[in-house]
Amino acid sequence: MSQDPWLQNYDATCRLAQETAENIQERNRQQRTGGNPAKINMTLRASQQKLKQNIAQLKEDLLRASSSRRLMQSEADRRQNLIDDLLTREKQLNATFKGDFMEPESSRSTLMGAGAGTSGGVAANPWLVNESEETQGLTFGQIKQQQQRIIEVQDEGLDALAAVISRQKIMGREIGNELDEQNEIIDDLSHLVDKTDDRIRNETRRVKLVETKSASCGMLVVIVLLLIAIVVIASWPV
């Protein structure tokens, strides 16, 4: 499996810084022994310029990866710490090259990877900072796999969240449709009640009219009966 390009570039930048430190020490040795360090000074200037460009490229690539969320925040912070350490040591190299910063012997040994920084005769890279517990002891390929798994878990979580939001959207739409139907039913009932009220008022008026007519007819019948009774009484023989 191919390594992470950013980590590859970082490792190459560390090697360049290591070589620059070794060349500075060799330049200083030539100056002490009366040699001519002009050639190595040209090499150092080119190396320092290249080191500066590499660090700037690492910063740009990290910013791009962080913006596109291809990295976990913890890993982005770890890589930013690596860049900050590189920047600090680059300044130390520049100061040492210009003669403005004289490192003690212990610091020079650490810079060259000697003494406590060696294991089994192989110089440890002094430019590497302590890794986090999550990635300590892992190869670049394993770190990449770990990051890929984390990203996949995040993607699954986002997919699940998107599914929940989609279901809620569908439920909201269905509730809205049902409310529209209920409003239509309420409008129909209101219209029906209004029509029923009109009918009731009309029927009430008719009943009152009938009662009035019935009352008038009853009085007329009574008068007619009285007249008939008067006529009958009048026709009786004395």
Task: Write up this protein.
The chain has helices spanning 5-32, 38-67, 73-98, 105-112, 140-235; strands spanning 118-119, 122-123. The chain has a two-stranded antiparallel ribbon with strand order 1-2. The protein is built from 5 helices and 2 strands. The relative contact order is 0.07. A hairpin with a 2-residue loop joins β1 (118-119) and β2. α1 packs antiparallel against α2 and α1 packs parallel to α3 (73-98). The protein has a domain at 5-137. By secondary structure, it is an all-alpha fold. Keywords: Coiled coil, Membrane, Phosphoprotein, Transmembrane, Transmembrane helix, Transport, Ubl conjugation. Its main location: membrane. GO terms for molecular function: SNAP receptor activity; SNARE binding.
Order of helices and strands: HHHHEEH
Q: Helicity range of the residues? A: over 70%
Q: In terms of per-residue confidence, which ranges show pLDDT below 50 for 5 or more consecutive residues?
A: 100-131
- How many strands, what sense, and barrel or not for the largest sheet? 2 strands, antiparallel
Q: Quick one: overall form?
A: rod-shaped
Give the mean pLDDT: 77
> Strand order across the biggest sheet?
1-2
Beta-strand proportion? under 5%
Name the structural class: mainly alpha
Radius of gyration: 51 Å
Specify the number of helices: 5
Total strand segments: 2
Distance between the termini: 147 Å
